[in-house]
Each structure stands twice: as C-alpha cells, then as structure tokens.
Design brief:
365 residues, Rossmann fold, Septum site-determining protein Ssd, eight-stranded mixed β-sheet, Rv3660c, five-stranded parallel β-sheet, Rv3660c_N, alpha/beta
C-alpha cells in the first residue's frame, strides 16, 4: 500500500493565545485529531515541513519576526483570528504561504473540515473493489473476505492498525465478521452509525472499527433494527476511503441505493457466477443493473463438476474472466471452525490470492 496512516504526520497548531488554542483544540477533539502544539514559530520550525496542515494564531503573525526567514513558504497554512485581521497579519500570513485567514467562531466549520481532511490524508483516496454474487450462494462474500485478507497480509501492504478495510454491504447477509470468525471482536458496526449526521472523520472511524492482522471490518450486528440511510452510507464510505489504503466491499445482488453508491465508486467490480445455466441466467440481470453504476466489471466463475466452461460463461455475460474458484467443502468446514478465508489449501483462499495478484498492480497506478 502506498501510504501508512499509522505514521501520518499530525496537524500543527502554533499560537501563544489560550483563547485560540482552546478554540482549535475543541475542533480537533470533535474530529478525533491529536495535533502538535507550539507556542511560537521558533519552536514550530522542526515540524513545519511535514505537518499536513499548519494553523497559526494571529498572535504569532502580527508582524515580521526574526524567525520568519528560516521558515519556508509552504501550502496548507491557515491563520485564525477573533476579529477582522489587521494589515500586518495579512502581510506575514502571505509571506508564510497562508491560503486563508479564518475568523473564529464564525469559520469553525471551515476549519473543522480542513483539519479532518488533512488528518485523514486528503488526496490519498483508497480504491474500492466491489464483489457481487451473480446468484445466491455463488461465493461472492467468501471471495471478498479472502481478497481483503490477502491484501492485508501482502508483503509491505499492511500495518498494525489495518490499512485494508472490508465493508459488509448486505444487512441480510449474516455478517462478514462471522465469516472471518471475528464476530466477538469489539468495535463499531453499521448499526452504531445509523444515527450519525453530516461529515465523518475517517481517522475516528479507523480507530473504532474491529481489526485483526492488518484488516479492519465494517459489518452488521445480527438482529439489530437500526439501518443507516443512504446518506450515512455515502458519508461513511467517503470517510473510510480517506483513512485506508484499500476498501473491499461485499454488495447484495439487488443493489439497493446504498450498494449502488458503493458500486459507483468502485475502481473494479467483480461478479462471482456459478457455472450452471440458472446461475448464468440470474447473473445476466445482476450484470445489467451493475453496468449502470460500475464502468469496470470482471468475472470470477465458481466451478463445479460437469458445469459450463468458464470461457462460455464469460462470453455469455460479455465480461473479462479474472479467474475461477472450485467448489470446496473444506472451506465450509473452515467457516464453521472460525478460520474461513485463511484456511490452508482452500480453493477460496487460492482464488483470493489470484484475484489480488491480478488487481494489485492496476490499483497501485
């Protein structure tokens, strides 16, 4: 993965004013951000180049000072004031590269968005890979979990906090955490997010999700009645893409509005199809609907003894074939034992590795 959020630089606040500091720290706390704080420009010098955002109080930029020449002009600098800024503030702010002068509390919302954007790694939006079953029982959920686990364990592709996120897009699917054997692991589920409103912090979500071995999971609590609205799903997806390096999503075949929102943002959508006549017939409708949302659709054929040739299935659906996945009773037993996609010698695990090896170079571009 190209970026590790575990070691991401923190926003820098430079002010000797308790009033400014309290105001900015309150906004940071709301977004679960831990900033660096310096009382003057001289002590901020070591952190100046690497900070994703610098917030300067007008008390430190009221006029030219001896330390200004040693601070390089840079982007992502804002100045906060309590009243309309004086001319001297503008002069020094421009010399340091400040793009905005914000009046607090009037511009609290603007500063909160800047802080959250930079803390989440703005500009590093994770690619989304979506998996959809062409028919019931095709194995899309299992393959999605296998690909996510493979990506999280790839050499150089994970960190201790989980750069890869597996998203369960089907509230009626039984829960991907159960498939992984992680249903008892503490952390947020979709149902906990149902009552949220507005912009969400990807950093805060990242810290709150269940995770193990480099893989975070956003699943459903079984039996819960609270279901997030389409707007909440969109806000959550936007936030987690800022705070992870890869998002793998398992979507329902009926593609409701929330699932369509995920499919529309997917770099690649993978349809998993059984190699029988009914499976291919059912997949035809799924592919037709998915085509309205996803511009890049690939195919994985689940093979059974005596089934249709994978090439014929691909030709019938007019989709490029990624790989095949054999029927495997050992995988079902592995799920019952709580090891699921990590079971050795499982065809699902092998298919997950194959899919990831083919998609990883494209997603890294």
């Amino acid at each position: 993965m190209p970026f590790s959020y575990a070691s991401a630089p923190r926003p820098l606040i430079v002010t000797g004013s308790e009033e400014h500091l309290d105001a900015v720290l309150r906004l940071c706390a709301a977004a679960a951000i831990e900033p660096l704080v310096c009382a003057e420009l001289a002590t901020a010098r070591p952190h100046w180049p690497a900070a994703p955002l610098v917030v300067l109080g007008d008390d430190v930029v009221a006029g030219p000072g001896p330390d200004l020449p040693v601070l390089e002009r840079r982007r992502d600098v804002v100045v906060v004031v309590r009243d309309d800024p004086r001319p001297a503030v503008w002069t020094t702010a421009l010399a340091l590269g400040a793009e905005q002068v914000l009046v607090l509390p009037r511009d609290d919302d603007a500063l909160a968005q800047l802080l959250a954007d930079r803390a989440d790694g703005s500009g590093r939006t994770a690619p989304v890979v979506a998996f959809v079953g062409g028919s019931g029982g095709a194995g899309a959920s299992s393959l999605a979990a296998s690909v996510a686990r493979t990506a999280a364990r790839a050499p150089g592709g994970r960190d201790a906090d989980g750069d890869v996120l597996l998203v369960d897009g089907d509230p009626l699917g039984g829960g991907l955490d159960l498939l992984l054997g992680d249903e008892a692991r503490p952390g947020l589920r979709w149902n906990d997010l149902a009552a949220t409103h507005g912009r969400l912090s990807g950093t805060a979500l990242r810290r709150s999700l269940p995770r193990a071995d480099g893989l975070a999971v956003l699943s459903w609590e079984r039996g819960a009645r609270d279901v997030p609205s389409d707007e909440v799903v969109a806000a959550v997806l936007t936030a987690v893409r800022r705070a992870h390096a890869l998002v793998v999503a398992d979507l329902p075949r009926h593609l409701d509005a929330a699932a369509a929102e995920v499919a529309a943002r997917a770099a690649v959508s993978v349809v998993v199809v059984s190699d029988d006549v009914r499976g291919v017939a059912a997949a035809t409708s799924v592919v037709r609907r998915l085509t309205g949302w996803s511009s890049d659709i690939r195919l994985v054929v689940r093979r059974r003894r005596g089934g249709l040739p994978p090439a014929l299935v691909a030709e019938t659906l007019a989709l490029p074939l990624l790989t095949t996945m054999s029927e495997d009773s050992r995988f079902r037993r592995a799920v019952e034992d709580g090891v699921g996609p990590v079971a050795r010698r499982s065809s699902v695990r092998a298919a997950g590795r194959s899919v990831w090896s083919l998609l990883a170079p494209e997603l890294a571009r």
